[in-house]
Amino acid sequence: MEVFTPDQKSIQAIVATLPAIAASPLFESYNTIYEGLMTLICYLAPPVTVVFLFGVF
Question: Which domain holds residue 46?
Answer without folding.
Answer: 6-56
